Amino acid sequence: MESLKKAWIYLENGTFLEASSFGANKTEVGEIVFNTSMTGYQEIMSDPSYAGQFVTFTMPEIGNVGVNDEDMESLAAHAKGMIVRRYQKRYSNFRAEDSLTNFLKKYDVMGICDIDTRYLTKMLRSEGAMMMIASTEISDKEELKKILENSPRIEDINYIEKVSTKEAYKHTSSTYNYRAFEYDKAPSPEAKIVVIDFGVKRNILNELVNAKIDVEVVPNDFIAEDLIEKYNNKLIDGVFLSNGPGDPLVLKREQEQIKKLIDAKVPMFGICLGHQLLSISHGYDTFKLKFGHHGGNHPVKNEKTGLVEITAQNHNYNVPDNITEIAEVTHVNLFDNTIEGLKYKDEPIFSVQHHPEASPGPKESAYIFSEFLSLIKR
Amino acid sequence: MPKRTDIKTILLIGSGPIVIGQACEFDYSGTQAVKTLKELGYRVVLINSNPATIMTDPEFADRTYIEPIKEDIIEKIIKDENVDAILPTMGGQTALNVAMSMYEKGMLEGVEFLGADPQAIKKGEDRHLFNEAMIKIGMDLPKSKNAYSVEEAIEVAKEIGFPVISRASFTLAGGGSGVAYNMEEFEKLAAEGISASPINEIEIMESMLGWKEYEMEVIRDKADNCIIVCSIENFDPMGVHTGDSITVAPALTLTDKEYQRMRDASFAILREIGVDTGGSNVQFSIDPKTGRMIVIEMNPRVSRSSALASKATGYPIAKVATLLAVGFTLDEITNDITGTPAAFEPVIDYIVTKVPRFTFEKFPEAVSTLSTSMKSVGEVMAIGRTFKESVQKALCSLETGLCGFDEIDADDEFVRHEIRRPNADRILYVAEGFRRSMSIKEMFDTCQIDPWFLYQLQELMEKEKTITDKILFDADLMREVKVDGFSDKRIAQLIKKNSGESVSEELVYEARKKLGISLEYNEVDTCAAEFEALTPYLYSTTNITKLPKTAPRQSDKKKVLILGGGPNRIGQGIEFDYCCVHAAFALKEMGIETIMYNCNPETVSTDYDTSDVLYFEPIDFEHVREVIEAENPDGIIVHFGGQTPLKLADGLTKIGAKISGTPSAVIDLAEDREQFSDFVNRHRLKQPANGLARTKEESYVIAEKLGYPVLVRPSFVLGGRGMRIVYSEAELKEYMDLAISVSNEAPVLIDKFLDQAIELDVDCISDGEDVYIGSVMQHIEEAGIHSGDSACSLPPVNLSQEMIEKVELQTKTIALGLGVRGLMNVQYAIYEGEIYLIEVNPRASRTVPFVSKATGMPLAKVATRVMMGENLRDSLAYYDKYDIVEETNGLLRPRLKGHVSVKEAVFPFHKLYGADLVLSPEMKSTGEVMGISKNFGVSFAKSQLSAGNKIPTGGTCFLSFVDSDKQHAAEIAAGLVKHGFKLVATKGTQEAIVAAGIECERVLKISEGRPNIEDSMKNDEIAMAINTSDNNTSKKDAVVIRQEVLKRSIPYFTTLSAARALILALDEMKDDKWSKATALQDFLV
């Protein structure tokens, strides 16, 4: 076995650790979070919502199943890096096409391994998400510290501009067929929407298509008036606000545009960042959770059915409790009782904080996409 | 919704004796169920024939029936106790089967099924209904079709594609079935199968040999909330029973898409089958080439795998399933470990490896190739941060002498053969193959184990090469190697191998400590550290990162470490876990903090609820020592977990650890032959005459001097292994030549064998001043049969009071003379009116739970108080709930309340194809049952019924006695004839019986022509067999007869004394009054 290159990480709380590198060789600054999913590292690394972040995987063996073309959640890997306890270069899975190392190198993303991820997780649990720097080039703690202190924080960077599509496009593929091991063809649509891309995951688009919705994806710099006009002319039936990276409070332009859509009574559905932006645009600012929700095992109670859904989660920000003044809570997180889903009173708008598109994660919340069709179908 | 209030009394059915396929995991689930139901305020009635369980402790259930788990008995209990509902999903297949059979016969009218309703159970268990249900929900099943002629079969085989499995319908023991890889092979197999099948039918099935195998542990509540508690991946590919496979959690070679597919399928299956309040296990197989996923089976109940999943994640499946069964939904239940809701899916940040434990060494004739019927008797689980660390810890836990991937001394051809053949040690051969530079491809082609696992083993073998004496001074290398889970002992071996320098484990340990590398402890917390763990359930790891030292766990209370017994195996099973659990309970009652230490996932001891702190670790010197360093306990109990912890006592004492109770010097004295002989002489006790032979010639001289028969055994093994009774010099020569290699280092012990002696077992407790005789038990089988395999009676059946008192006084002399503080077990033989001392064990014995149940005095708890320094009288008084302690002649003993308890052993012969059904000084039983009633005959009859040896009340009985027993043939025959049996016997026996004027037909031995006894048995003409045997007469005939008896489940008795007990039982079985069930509580009060 060839030995791995060394790497060093420094956290803003002063923690300095030596580790190994299995990804791109470079120096990067980002926010460190942890994710407890036991499967789906490729989906997580290709999820644009992780832009600007280092993801610590609590699953200790990573790389086992390699990577493949099908399991991409976007066209690239957007996170700053992944931090794992042990990286396994040789993989084994019938769908595997390449190693995780080659994947990370291809997208210029760092891979840090041979580090005690449980120690990091416990630290994040008690101290909260924080900024960090990782390097394969600089081993000096003071130097790393200096670079970190002089780098912008995650809240100060607009990652959405980096991950959103530059051109509008049609999305045509449907959900994954687990028997044929390929994506299904789209069923014939019964409604038509525009998806605002803040860093949308591919499986959200697949699920929308699967719910018989025709999907056009547009960049984050959309103009509300255009969409309102299209809606009024029945060229579209609604708007979907996607997930995406970073702090929603800094997205002033997007908030303004969304406010206009709300006022025009355009039916809307938002997931994650989209859910947060709807709240802010209604005048209810989000707050930052201590260490966020990242994983595939959070219980969410559906207040309508009384059933518990095990959900995929990935967010550091949350809508405030007093939003109940204008919206009905449809979903609640049973771990910490935070709001997971809202239906705005007297408005054709609803949204969820968790990820019903899963990928990775449990799929039992996927019914929500059909509910969107019911809302917009005219 | 809260708990149901419309039911009051719930009957819980246990799983009976420990057998292959059903071990103490059902005591774990049953105990959780009883505790949970009691806490909710239900009246709990329990039936279980196994006295060695925690759940049958009289203080657990309201009413405890230690009775045969049989339909008529359960029916009576239901009536007597006004049972509203039964919970049949906690007692394995035994409980499920009996409940379903009763349901189908209409015996359960008005009694509700909790956990899973009969329709669901039926759908899950009936192959045909299950397949139909799976097709309905679009699940993939193995392709299969029936055929009735060879021509038809050929067409089917072509359609399915090779390899195929051909299975003959309605044949016993899998006759006419097998795998075919080509048409020629198949034609032969199909023809055989069609003729073997009484209806000329074969099922031809797609073979999934070599496919990957997975299990999902699923919970569903009545509101339809579903969760996966744990996914498990088998290291061994399809073809090996999952109980015999090495398994890991979580699944490691699935992408999220494949994992979610399996998760969704699991839920769909539970919904379709209709399991709506509880836990189930679903098994899948995946074609490694195409990813095609097939449903293998589901179990609508808690299982061995769910116990493993509970221990692997910290999520208590049985407890949650019980709560769901009585009306709760998942969101109403709290996860004890984190305080968050139980309605979530556990995530783990470590790798769990389970390795099964086999005991083929006890059954040298049994076929040791693993296949689809289970053969292992126990298992260990190990936790590590990586698979490498986890699997090496598991090997250290096995108690087979391994300290990791020990080298194998065999030629390449044999190594390859054993890599191909599924067998108990295959993983070691795979490692050995890599050590000898086999490539991944070669290895995969040979064994079909997933390459991912092969990579890990290959890398470990590469790492082995880097371990030289340099490691003792190289902190980086030492850490790297420890991170991969290499034990200190293994490192010492590898230094010797690679550098030629002999170093001790101790030296490696010291070097490691100097380099600043210690094991550290992580919590098993259900959530991968997302939330804080409230219950300290810990495992060790060597951290990859050198981190600042965390503060040790703080506690102001006095704390005691209890070392458990490790994996279940023959000779060391649930009895010892029972004792450890009792120690924890007793310590808790004393306000002492309890630290449990064990590596067996099936047990109650490893329930996080049992003790204050739980360490899930290999029971070897290195790992125990590290925990002692981390915890610094005020006491260590090594006497309750059997030999495993006991043999660590010496080493632990040397490093200054505080052993509670009987000190290790006393343990040593009892085990050292010479010291012990001195002790015996000093106290004017008697031992059978004996000698020690260092050469073959010496052995003949000694045996001649002692006089035949003699008992011979190698001096270096415990538990009766290799022990044999030898009747002549010729036999001794054979033994010395074949069975054993004798040398200076490994001498052979030769004892005068006390033929036809009565053997006794005595358990006692001493505090150094007083002695409490827990009980004197008389073995039903005569001396020469391992005490664990012998049935026994408490009180003795035919021993004078005077003799019993003599035995008790001797026991007191020994306990005080040795300086025992705590439990001691002594075995005696009464031979020609004299008492001989056979063995003394200053520790908890296998009979402690039986004695505790039979007398009402919890011996292990009393002993625990004594070991903590309390005096015996006070300790007894504390637990004398049933007012039984009495004192005469300065001896404390239980006042027996007129009931007779019989313990019977249960054997695995029918599970181990080829094994010979014969009892010897080597222990072979896996478990035990208890019969309790007002007289010996009934108790014996019940014990036989519970052990699966159902005594018939009429029909033809076959008799065949060895020469030395023939003088008693008439006595037994008369007893049988009195009860209406017809007799047939082989020549000598028949002559002896007829000579006494009793009618008896002669039947031919197999060697004498036909029709012979084998034909009679095959024609179902024999209802019962009494066939006494020794090792040297009519061997071949006896083996065939015993195999036939096993195959046809014909009740059999192999000793004269058992035959006598049988007659006493028949005396009581005249009418059906004998099968009346009585609760243990009623006997004790």
Topology:
The complex is a heterodimer of chains A (378) and B (1085).
Chain A lengths: L4 E7 L4 E6 L5 E9 L5 H5 L7 E5 L3 E2 L18 E3 L2 E2 L12 H7 L3 E4 L3 H11 L2 E6 L5 H9 L10 H4 L5 E3 L4 E2 L4 E2 L7 E6 L5 H9 L2 E6 L5 H9 L5 E4 L10 H12 L4 E4 L1 H9 L5 E16 L5 E11 L8 E7 L5 E6 L4 E4 L14 H10 L2
Parallel strand pairs in A: 3-4, 4-6, 5-7, 6-8, 13-14, 13-15, 15-16, 16-21
Antiparallel strand pairs in A: 1-2, 1-9, 2-8, 3-9, 10-14, 11-12, 17-18, 17-19, 19-20, 20-21
Helix pairs in contact in A: 7-8, 8-9
Chain B lengths: L8 E5 L11 H15 L3 E5 L15 E3 L5 H11 L3 E3 L4 H13 L7 E2 L4 H8 L1 H10 L7 E4 L2 H11 L3 E5 L9 E3 L2 H14 L5 E5 L5 E9 L5 E9 L12 E3 L6 H18 L4 E9 L6 E7 L4 H10 L3 H9 L25 E7 L20 E7 L2 H11 L14 H9 L5 H10 L4 H8 L3 H15 L9 H9 L4 H12 L5 H10 L5 E4 L13 E5 L17 E5 L10 H16 L3 E6 L14 E4 L4 H11 L3 E3 L5 H4 L2 H6 L9 H8 L1 H10 L7 E4 L2 H11 L3 E5 L9 E3 L2 H11 L8 E5 L5 E9 L4 E9 L12 E3 L6 H18 L3 E10 L2 E8 L6 H8 L3 H9 L4 H8 L5 E4 L2 E4 L5 E7 L20 E7 L2 H11 L8 E6 L8 H10 L2 E5 L1 H9 L5 E2 L10 H6 L5 E4 L7 H13 L4 E2 L2 H13 L11 H5 L1
Parallel strand pairs in B: 1-2, 1-4, 2-3, 4-5, 18-21, 19-20, 19-22, 20-21, 36-37, 36-39, 37-38, 39-40
Antiparallel strand pairs in B: 6-9, 7-8, 7-9, 10-11, 10-13, 11-12, 12-15, 13-14, 15-16, 17-18, 23-26, 24-25, 24-26, 27-28, 27-30, 28-29, 29-34, 30-31, 32-33, 34-35
Helix pairs in contact in B: 1-10, 4-5, 6-7, 12-13, 13-15, 14-15, 17-18, 19-29, 25-26, 29-30, 31-36
